[in-house]
Amino acid sequence: MTAQRMLTGDRPTGKLHLGHYVGSIANRVKLHQRYESFFIIADLHMLTTKNTRDDIARATQNARDMVLDSLAAGIDPDTATFYLQSAIQEVGDLNTLFQNLVTVPRLERVPSLKDMARDAGKDEMPYGLLGYPVLQAADILCVKAHVVPVGKDNAAHVEVTRELARRFNHLYGEVFPVPELVSAETPTLVGTDGRAKMSKSLGNVIALSDEPADVRRKVMGMYTDPNRVRADVPGTVEGNPVFQYHDVFNPNRAEVADLKSRYREGRVGDVEVKEKLATALNAFLDPVRERRARYEADRGLVDELIVEGTERTRRVVRQTVFDARKAMGLTGVYTQLRRKAERSRKPAVTTA
């Protein structure tokens, strides 16, 4: 029996950060050796919000950084297939086949699309952004993925994928598995500004590759309880970004409990709370940095992984597109036309 497959990935818009880690990377690390795992570098999805020549020019290095960050986080290069989305044109064929199986009102109900347009400074939604979930369905189903570990923002997208798989199978026969969404234990991580989720476009991130001094600087500047003007004023723990990070990244539960108790009672200052958070974060990131440096020193490794993975994925996708076209009857249409044309071109047999 063929191993079940996992599909996940990111847009090459910059280095990966702690928000990516809690949203999906932690699950990827746990799951990637249980499944045949494909990691998409989604540069076509990047074009929905970042499509200048400069954006595209930066995608090459961003792709390398994404793979390095993934390896640094714990993905085994020997059991993972990284591939560049735009290099596999057949994904566009599958996207075309899916477009007529979903309605505009259904796509307009996907909540994250308006947020993405707003964050990108778009006054109106581009056609490509509205169709983002359909192309994402093509990404997932082109490798016939069974599981998709994603963050909270993409959960509604995966539901569109599930609907499209079911609809296609109902109309044309069983071709695609209906993929399962694997949710994160921590769906989202608020940014260091405390106002929105951690996002590269908002500049409120702590990158997986940040140096210890940068992590400390960002932590010391984090938003906290705005009503707390002195250390002896009782503070609010609930909803406080600094304590949210402690809950996720500080394994010393006794220390976290003590900090929360003293914070509520006005017996600890923000500086101490942040200092201990910076220490916990750097302890978490130290092995990530070490792995990244080791893989980065292996010159050519990342480029080889992407190229070899893309070639392998292309073979898988070509078979999937053939299976889909055959199920729909599209391969038979041209075959019948060609055969009739060939018969009509044969010279007539004359008798003496």
Automatic annotation (TrEMBL):
<keyword id="KW-0067">ATP-binding</keyword>
<dbReference type="InterPro" id="IPR050203">
    <property type="entry name" value="Trp-tRNA_synthetase"/>
</dbReference>
<dbReference type="InterPro" id="IPR002306">
    <property type="entry name" value="Trp-tRNA-ligase"/>
</dbReference>
<keyword id="KW-0648">Protein biosynthesis</keyword>
<protein>
    <recommendedName>
        <fullName>Tryptophan--tRNA ligase</fullName>
        <ecNumber>6.1.1.2</ecNumber>
    </recommendedName>
</protein>
<keyword id="KW-0030">Aminoacyl-tRNA synthetase</keyword>
<dbReference type="GO" id="GO:0004830">
    <property type="term" value="F:tryptophan-tRNA ligase activity"/>
</dbReference>
<dbReference type="GO" id="GO:0005829">
    <property type="term" value="C:cytosol"/>
</dbReference>
<dbReference type="InterPro" id="IPR001412">
    <property type="entry name" value="aa-tRNA-synth_I_CS"/>
</dbReference>
<dbReference type="InterPro" id="IPR014729">
    <property type="entry name" value="Rossmann-like_a/b/a_fold"/>
</dbReference>
<dbReference type="Pfam" id="PF00579">
    <property type="entry name" value="tRNA-synt_1b"/>
</dbReference>
<keyword id="KW-0436">Ligase</keyword>
<keyword id="KW-0547">Nucleotide-binding</keyword>
<dbReference type="GO" id="GO:0005524">
    <property type="term" value="F:ATP binding"/>
</dbReference>
<dbReference type="GO" id="GO:0006436">
    <property type="term" value="P:tryptophanyl-tRNA aminoacylation"/>
</dbReference>
<comment type="similarity">
    <text>Belongs to the class-I aminoacyl-tRNA synthetase family.</text>
</comment>
<dbReference type="InterPro" id="IPR002305">
    <property type="entry name" value="aa-tRNA-synth_Ic"/>
</dbReference>
